[in-house]
Amino acid sequence: MGDLNSNRIGYKWRSSKWFIVATVTIALFIESFLYGFLVPILPYMFRNRLNLDISQTQRLTSAVLSLHGFISAVSGPVIGHFADKTLDRKTPLLLSLAGCIAGTIMVACSRLLPFLFLGRILQGVAGSTAWIVGLATVADTLGQDNMGTVMGVIMSFVNAGMISGPMVSGIMLEVAGYWLTWCVPLLVLVVDVIARLLMIEAPEESSSDSSSEVAEATSLLPQQERSNSHDASTTIGFWRFMLSDIRVVTTLIVAISCTGMNTSFHTTLALHTQEAFGWGTSRVGFMFFLLAMPAIILGPFAGMLRDRIGVKIPATISLILQAMMMGLLGAAGNPNLPWASFQNRGPALFIAGIIAMGTLRPFVSGIGPVELTAVVKTHEKQEPGIFGPRGGYSRVFSMTDVAAHAGLTIGPVVSGALSEKFGYATMSWTLGSLYLSLAILVLIFLGSGSRSKGGKAKTEQEDLDSQSV
């Protein structure tokens, strides 16, 4: 197989690490681009194409957007299970692309609400597949030493997609009309098609090679370890094994909580700034720009920092400072606090808090894939083949995918309810307390190694000592 692959045109660069990572980055950029691309178009679609009453716009917009997250969360474990059983990573990526194209065309052509929802479901499943299999491909391709840096770069492109999606569609709809607007994502998807077809997986990751290596390594293990390995390679055994690891549980808690708290800005910022400062839509849009832009710039730096010193210190400091900034945002514009009122420093303090939150978020946002990749590699080193011949990366990243979409679903509900019932300040201070709680969890549990076969914590130094013995 290796000789056959090496005869392909451009084999060297098509199978290179940089091209594989670039292909995955393009796929995830497009997924985030398409998620936000629909937002400015939906009111037009409801009014002019689906002929729905204008009073239904807000409710249906929420339903269409939340459906994407719900479908992704539900389908994630199933996708991860089957992706780890496929012979390669490229096939699931191509299938996800086909689903994304079909879903996008269905959404664009929708004249009936059920057709629109069906297209959105296809987009959700395809997007979840792109995330799970894409990150698994990156983990297969890279060594652990570079995972943080690469994830930082990938997250920068993801954030760029989240910003550019609604911006491009809003401008194009106004300037060029409905159908030319939809030509933009379809053109971007063509670029994705070309990249995924060109990508060649490294020959050493073929199933037959992996299977033989796993069989050879597993045969050398004691009987008890072979039993543990077999159990963890099964579907139920895998989830039980991973969720008994405190690093995994802590990482998922952080992913759910931080994603949920990040969405609180989408739910509450516009109404709060309008009531507290009298800001219109243009200033609100600028606040979201200030919130997202630092993450695009600082993402690679945050990733390199994680590669050099680990996730614990940067994430802990970031979470503590974010807790302080949430306190500041709750105080800004509060009439009961003269030093932070609208007439005094309120607007300036709010803007400073938003910029600070955008600057701090990259140091936490990428820890999920990095930590879980480290956990899998540690267990594979201790017990080769424990997760089966294809490893457990797809199933692991389905866990981060479910956690992220759970946060997207829970966050707006909780933050909206707190703000409506108790006020924006109380909501911000409550979330600030949650950031402090997460900082404590990260400080205690992350970056401290994985559990041993007996279930106890085992430090990385102990791992090295045991290997040297």
TrEMBL record:
UniProt superkingdom: Eukaryota
Comp. bias (Low complexity): 209-219
GO cellular component: membrane
Keywords: Membrane, Transmembrane, Transmembrane helix, Transport
Topology term for the membrane: Multi-pass membrane protein
Ranges annotated as spanning the membrane: 18-42, 62-82, 94-115, 121-138, 150-173, 179-199, 246-265, 285-305, 317-337, 349-375, 424-446
Domain (Major facilitator superfamily (MFS) profile) ranges: 24-451
Location in or out of the cell: Membrane
Keyword Methyltransferase belongs to the record: no
GO MF assignments: transmembrane transporter activity
Gene3D superfamilies registered for this protein in UniProt: MFS general substrate transporter like domains
Pfam families per the UniProt record, alphabetical: MFS_1 (PF07690)
Xref: PROSITE patterns: MFS
PANTHER family: GH10249P, MAJOR FACILITATOR SUPERFAMILY (MFS) PROFILE DOMAIN-CONTAINING PROTEIN-RELATED
Family in the record: Belongs to the major facilitator superfamily. Vesicular transporter family.
Protein name, entry field: Major facilitator superfamily (MFS) profile domain-containing protein
